[in-house]
Amino acid sequence: MTPAVSSPAVLHQAGRVVTGAGCLLQLPGLIASWKPERLLLVVGRAVTPDSPVHALHAALTAAGIDVLLLDPVPPEPEVADVDAVLAAARQAGPVDLVVGVGGGSAIDVAKAVAVLLAHPVSVRELLSGTPVPGRGLPTVMVPTTAGTGAEATPNSIILVPQDALKVGIVSPHLLPDLVLLDPLLTLTLPPAVTAHTGIDALCHAIECYTSKKANLFSDLYGLEAIRLISRSIRRAFADGQDVAARQDMLLGSYYGGVCIATSSTTAVHALAYPLGGRYRVPHGLSNAMLLPAIMAYNCVGNEARFAAMARAMDLPVAGLSDAQATTLFVQALARLNADLGITTRLSDLGVTEADLDALVDGASKVTRLLDNNPRPMGRDDMRALYAAVL
């Protein structure tokens, strides 16, 4: 079969990526050539007193590097949270490196603060569309969830309360200089967090692979992310100490983030953002609840790609048509939610039918993602999709 000719595509990635159990403690040596004197360590609330992060702190101090450790970043960070970290860092004195350790919240704040410390611009300006003026301070990102893939993306997602919506700062200037993928940091994730963040990672791969901007890069990384996550998410959920499963999940999450950097997500994320903004529903849970219904909508006319994803999930599709394989794939997504104990009804989270129009209003503003959806989606379609999971 003659291969198709791809449209031009660009792959943006972190400068270096190091993976493997225990790689976190290699950080002092990995940054030695930068000769940092003082670094800002941004952490999430899940970093506990027995976390390896504290061993990292000691190792950095032993290497002669002063560490500024601030209060943990809350989940679903707002503009005020970014401003608070920025103000505390400025008050404490100059830093020449920013390290983010945590889930997507800590990493997104760390990426934004690294730019804000280096340029005379505010987070509000960046969220309003002012271009990121250039690279910020050097950055190292260390995810403790698998997950958001934030360590691989050129995005920083921040909640704007007055709009009840999450907004993205998007620029290649946000890509980290170094990423460490250490599965040992994810062993203590509770099952529910493992499920929510894991489905979020799966969403990234699926949405990017089926998006209008899909390309050779997102095809490669997307299918591999689907393969890794689908084979290991149930194992990681059932046994948090399964290091091999945790490593699959962390690598799959990173690959999903790479997909975002080259092709971007679509309607699942667009419709999920108002749920986080209005109801503070965890981002991964919002995506998980919407994923099966939106994929059932998006698959129309796109069956060949959905069949390829079914094969990546190792579903029994031999001898089936693309349409039949697509049906199995959508069913498998719903079954995965059930196996992971994920709430499937928005009403369980306090959403009522009277809220649907406001949710549609919020989702309609996320044109960057809706325009990338493989199938056109109008307001009536969005309302019907919200209603389907009400």
Largest sheet: 6 strands, parallel
Q: Per DSSP, what share of the residues sits in E-state strands of 2 or more residues?
A: 5-15%
State mean pLDDT (0 to 100 scale).
94
First and last CA, distance:
45 Å
Describe this structure in words.
The structure is a single chain. This protein has helices at 27-30, 52-62, 79-92, 104-116, 123-127, 191-210, 216-238, 243-262, 267-279, 283-298, 303-312, 322-339, 356-364, 367-370, 379-388, and strands spanning 16-19, 38-43, 66-69, 97-102, 139-143, 155-160, 165-170, 178-181. The chain folds into two domains: 16-185, Rossmann fold (3-Layer(aba) Sandwich), CATH 3.40.50.1970; 191-389, Up-down Bundle (Dehydroquinate synthase-like, alpha domain), CATH 1.20.1090. The chain has a six-stranded parallel β-sheet with strand order 1-8-5-4-2-3, with helices on both faces. The chain has a two-stranded antiparallel sheet with strand order 6-7. The chain is of the alpha/beta class and 390 residues long. Strand 2, helix 2 (52-62) and strand 3 (66-69) form a beta-alpha-beta unit. The model has no long low-confidence stretch (mean pLDDT 94). 51% of the residues are buried.
